[in-house]
Amino acid sequence: MTENFQFTLKKTDAGARLGEISMPRGTIRTPAFMPVGTVGTVKAMYLDQVRETGADIILGNTYHLMLRPTAERVARLGGLHKLIRWEHPILTDSGGFQVMSLSGLRKLDEQGVTFKSHVDGSLHHMSPERSIEIQGLLGSDIQMQLDECVALPAEPKEIERAMEMSLRWAERCRVAFGEQPGKAMFGIVQGGDIPALRIRSAEELTKLDLKGYAVGGLAVGEPQEVMLKMLNETLPVLPGEKPRYLMGVGTPDDILKSVARGIDMFDCVMPTRSGRHGLAFTRRGKVNIRNARHAEDMRPLDEQSNCPASRDYSRAYLHHLVRSNEALGGMLLSWHNLAYYQELMQGIRKAIAEGRFADFMAETQEEWARGDLQPV
């Protein structure tokens, strides 16, 4: 641990990077996957379990927490870490994506965005300064700039307008954040699927000399090859000595291919959301536990896993729970999925340290391709 935010790049293996972020509340081993704790909870999980899977950091959501229980109430209660009993680093997003995607009524201008709460219909205004204020009230360790995220596909002029707005908002967020020892603010590269805009966004954000940089506005409906192409264009422009965070990504395959290009941090609701709907991610690929083939299969999802949910519960029981809409089914599969994601990240870090990431990636993809166990 350290009193200041510090990123150390320990080793590279072609494009893949092994590193470490040191902060007062703990160390984040990179490449890192951050479970999403939208409203102060990683859905269907105890945070002690989340920690035991290997998570060094979780994500909280500014939009949801500002509406309920409100940032001011969280601050009065001692901050988000104390409220949820998680004494390790927390990254909060800016709330911009949720304002754009969830609000039924919104008005956006240079000052920020006025929107209608999806909870009770009340009106709120989110400016760059207010976003940083809320994240400060929550006690976030890594805070994100307010940006405008445009769903793809979109017209080039609209993508450029949103990117330029996001750059101006980044400057205002930087001023509002000021100097906070031990904490960090990250900028967000926008620019849709247009390489020239991505490059310009990255160049201008770099001039702000922020503690880290995120790539946003991807995994919003575009094909994987488009996402990877934007990373190929963007990452060489970003400073190599700063952490790089790909927002909202993604599948295990997305993670492998993005690590290969130099991404250090990921977050996604996919492991927990999929778990609640009966889908498991395993070293043998995806397994839909709802399928009838599992109804009398007493084998576990993964006999080699260190996670009790993966190793100690039969597929037959998981199938029964999910088909019966029992909450425990979603809990066990969410636990399994988060453990698998963290085991994948651990394998990635070990492979980079040993200089064999390309082999690890090929072996992992080959095992996925072979598929699940044969039915009993």
Q: Can you give a write-up of this model?
A:
The chain has helices at residues 47-52, 62-67, 71-76, 80-84, 96-102, 128-138, 156-177, 195-206, 224-234, 252-259, 270-276, 308-311, 315-323, 327-353, 357-370; strands at 6-13, 16-23, 26-30, 32-35, 58-61, 90-93, 106-109, 112-116, 123-126, 142-144, 184-189, 212-215, 244-246, 265-268, 279-282, 285-288. It is α/β, with parallel strands linked by helices. The protein folds into two domains: 6-267, Queuine tRNA-ribosyltransferase-like (TIM Barrel, Alpha-Beta Barrel), CATH 3.20.20; 275-370, no CATH class. The chain is globular and about 60 Å long. It starts with 5 loop residues before the first strand and ends in a 6-residue tail after the last helix. It catalyses: 7-aminomethyl-7-carbaguanine + guanosine(34) in tRNA = 7-aminomethyl-7-carbaguanosine(34) in tRNA + guanine. Substrate binds at residues 93-97, 147, 190, 217. It comes from Rhizobium pisi.
How many helices does DSSP assign? 15
CATH topology of the largest domain: TIM Barrel
The CATH architecture assignment of the largest domain turns out to be Alpha-Beta Barrel
Helix content: 40-55%
Question: First CA to last CA: what distance?
Answer: 49 Å
| Order of neighbouring strands in the sheet with most strands | 4-14-13-12-11-10-6-5
Q: How many domains is the backbone divided into?
A: 2
CATH homologous superfamily assignment of the largest domain? Queuine tRNA-ribosyltransferase-like
**CATH domain class of the largest domain:** Alpha Beta
Q: Averaged pLDDT, please?
A: 95
- Note poorly predicted spans: none
Structural class of the helix and strand makeup?
Answer: alpha/beta
